[in-house]
Structures are given as C-alpha cells and as structure tokens.
Amino acid sequence: MKRVVITGLGAITPIGKDVKTYWNSLLNGISGANKITRFDASKFKTQFACEIKDYQATDYFDRKEARKLDRFSQYGLIAAEEAIKDAKLNFSKLDTNRIGVIFSSGIGGFETFEKEVINYGENNFNPRFNPFFITKIIPNSLAGSISIKYGLNGINYCPVTACASSTQSIIQAFNYIKWGKADIFIAGGSEAPITESSIAGFNAMKAMSTNNDNYLTASKPFDANRDGFVVGEGAGSLIVESLDSAIKRNAKIYAEIVGGGESSDAYHIAGTHPEGLGAYLAMRQAIDEAEIAADKVDYINAHATSTGVGDLSGIKAIEKLFFSTINLVQISGTKSMTGHLLGGTGAIEAIASCLSVQTNWIPPTINTKEIDKNIPAELNLSLVEKSSKTINYALSNSFGFGGHCAAIVLKKFLDD
Fold first, then answer.
1. pTM of the prediction?
2. Active site residue 303
3. CATH of the domain at 277
4. Cα–Cα distances in Å, from 294 out to 27, 148, 319, 324?
C-alpha cells in the first residue's frame, strides 16, 4: 500500500476567506455568527448564521462565469484554486490521467433551486427556467467544474452523505491513492445553505439554535444550555497525494493520512444513535487502519454541532473508544466558531486538524460556559483559549443525517 500525504490546503469560511486567515481566526477564538444579510430573516425563528463576510462573486469570476455557477460551486472552485497553488501543482508536467477530483456537497445548488422555483410561481407557472438550472443545482457539478477547469482526467465524483460528505471525499481519495489507482486528488467539500427554505426547513426540524438575542455565542458545543446548531457556509479543499509523487515534486507536506473509517448508525434518518454506535465504529476503523492504540491520539476535532443529542452521542462514542485514557486526549469543537457547514464541514475541520498536527496548536471550543452534566468531568474540551501540545496523531470526525459516520486519522509527517 502506498503512503498518502496532504500537500496543499484551500478554504473560504465565515471566519476567513483563505487558509491563513481561517487558521488564525480559529486559534484566536473568533465567532463567525451574525445576523443574516442574505435575505430578510425577521419572520424566521432563527435570524442569524455564519455567513462569509463581504463576498462578491465578481472578485473571483467574470460575470458570465459567475452566472453559470451556484454559490456552492463558486466557493468550491475558490478553495480548490488556493489548494492547487499552495501545493504548487503544475499540471502540464504531471500525468493528468492519474489526477482526480472527489469533491462533495450535502445539498448542492439549493439557492439556485429556491430562486428558480419561486420565479416559476411568480410568473404564473410559465416554465421558462435558466438554461443552467440543472447544472447549477446538481451536487456533482462542482467536482466536474474543477476537473474541467484544470483538465484532470482521473477519477471524478461527489459523495453525498449529508454532513459526513467531505470527510468521505478525503477518505476515498486516500483509498484510491493507497491502492495505486491515482497519484493526486483535489478533495473536499462545499456548501451554501443560507437560504430561506433551508433555514425554514431546519427550524421545522427544531435542529437550529433560535437564540437570536445572543447569536454570537449561540454555537456552544457541550454546553448545558445549547439549543441547536448554527448554520454556516463555505468550502475546504485538500491536495491528497501519494508520498512518492510528493517526494518526486519536492512538495511540502503538512501531514500524513494513515486511517479512515466509515460506518452507519442504522438508527434514524435525522437523529444520531444515542450511544454513538456509528461514530464509535468509524473511529475504531480509522485508528485500526492507522495501526495505533487509541491512547496515541493526541487531539480530536469533534463533530460537536451544539445539538442536545448529537453532542452527547459523540462524547459517548469517544468514551467507549478511549475508555480509561480519555483524559489524555484533547477535544475541541471548531463549529463553535465556523458554524456548521453541512457537507463542507468535514473538509474545513480536516484542514484544522492538519494544521494542528503540523503546528502543535489546538483551536479552542468557544462560548461553552456550563458543561452538560452528562459529559464526564475528566474530558479536556479545550475551552476558551488555544492550547499547545505535541500532536503526533489527530482524529477528525463527521456524522451526517441518515446515520452516515466518517473519521480520519492524520499523523505528523516523518520521513522514515
């Protein structure tokens, strides 16, 4: 089996429109939450979200191109370009038949779908749709757009597993490379879910926080008074590459991917298993593939959405996996700052985990004041401020509606 490494990173998030800004914001505990500006949210139960600030499509695309792309595709293309530049990939000198794109989205072009259907109704149901309607809404269009832009002929597809989507993108890129079926992947995920129908839908499920008076601190994983997640938007992209290819290119290496786990709760279409069964299985598979004991994991970027049942089930899974050594691992919930990017969240959290491994810094969990009494007191939840620790192994978790569970293990790169 080939060794697999990460050689490039790209991100556009509510707390930074590039990786450097995003990472600095994480370490400094910056909240991305604010009042929704995308539409009039005054009639909604939730009136805030983690939007990308001061975003203009024409800062990145010409007007003609921007009109062909839903917002989620725009974000993904921006993140992919940063990652490609960061990795210093020169496709003219590489075998593009062995370079692929696995880029996911949970809901795809929701904004386009909503606008076109509203226009359809407002125009007396006259079926005159935008000719790019279908290509803008389908989730796989982003992976296709990336491969077309750069002329990449390798494996190309889009996992759609709700909030586990982009972690599964990274796992599948890892798998194909270790099996020798590709050399390089642009992997990640993107989401643009801050729309009227999305907010209304999540409100109907009672999944989102409605703490409009204290929106800056509404995303508070593990807190006794948490009342739901805060939705966010953006994209993350990672260049996943065989070690052989990276060495041949003399590429910088952020971290090594050494394990991936995928499983199902097989429990409920929206709720997580109360004992964290699927989460445990995914993490167990990931560390088994990494060939390490659980106590070798130094840091966990937890799924930690700030929902009542979800946070507890994730913690129960970690308890079961780590058992008597649970006090040795540091845990943080970075969604306390970024909000929940749904299908894009695994990618930006993999980037955070990757940078933690490289720099030995752990982002904090912010906003959490009173720990839920059901959470063990011995857990180190990295509250309030960043912390420094030698991180040889990090675990990043993503769990999605439908019971989809995914986890990856990243290792500090050692040229041995």
1. 0.97
2. yes
3. 3.40.47.10
4. 25, 41, 11, 10
